[in-house]
């Protein structure tokens, strides 16, 4: 199983469909299981942390006209510029996030506490010299979008977790996520959790440190055995 898909993706796996959006995984067989999200709002469709796929515009169009692209993690530039330029829309980046705008070959807009014209608030989850991450929270239907701090790909999960804290954050889990009370959570790696997401986040954070040795052992075994 490759760590990351290398060739151009021509099909995708759809996940997390609900009334106001959908997620898609362009390379279902890759180890990283990268996911992107289509969010329907009153201001149009916003695509979060997109990976471009041949024909993906048809999926966007099911929810309306694309109004913008959103980057929530400094490392998740992905195909943001390509998608934004094709739809003639800006790329939105949190106003406190540095080291991203200069690498985006597309118009960039900064967002403060809100994704403009929408019910999605912008929440700072992590900001240090190694990691800058924001989350979106939709007040209308309690939808949380988290790109990296928690995930649902196998290498995030220990024991019976539905969501797991990122392996590099396990010893110091992102407690800011406990301030939110989502019904569903969409993640940047793996399928999201579409019911009782707040409970899944709480369980992941409370047991993060205690389940770390088991997760590390599982991931090491996976790497060694392929």
From TrEMBL:
InterPro entries: RibonucZ/Hydroxyglut_hydro. Gene3D superfamilies: Ribonuclease Z/Hydroxyacylglutathione hydrolase-like. This is MBL fold metallo-hydrolase.
């Amino acid at each position: 199983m490759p760590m990351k898909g290398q060739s151009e993706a021509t099909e995708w796996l759809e996940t997390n469909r609900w009334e106001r959006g959908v997620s898609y995984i362009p390379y279902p067989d890759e180890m990283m299981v990268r996911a992107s999200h289509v969010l329907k709002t009153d201001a149009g469709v916003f695509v979060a942390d997109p990976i471009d796929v041949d024909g993906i515009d048809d999926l966007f169009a099911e929810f309306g006209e694309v109004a913008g692209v959103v980057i929530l993690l400094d490392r998740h530039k992905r195909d943001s510029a390509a998608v934004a330029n094709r739809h003639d829309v800006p790329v939105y980046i949190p106003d406190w996030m540095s080291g991203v705008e200069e690498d985006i070959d597309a118009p960039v807009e900064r967002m403060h506490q809100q994704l403009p014209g929408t019910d999605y608030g912008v929440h700072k989850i992590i900001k240090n010299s190694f990691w800058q991450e924001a989350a979106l929270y939709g007040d209308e239907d309690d939808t949380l979008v988290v790109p990296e701090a928690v995930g649902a790909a196998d290498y995030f999960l220990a024991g019976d977790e539905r969501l797991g804290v990122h392996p590099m954050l396990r010893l110091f889990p992102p407690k800011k996520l406990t301030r939110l009370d989502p019904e569903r959570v969409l993640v940047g790696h793996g399928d999201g959790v579409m019911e009782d997401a707040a409970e899944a986040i709480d369980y992941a954070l409370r047991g993060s440190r205690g389940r770390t040795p088991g997760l590390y052992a599982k991931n090491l075994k996976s790497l060694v055995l392929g």
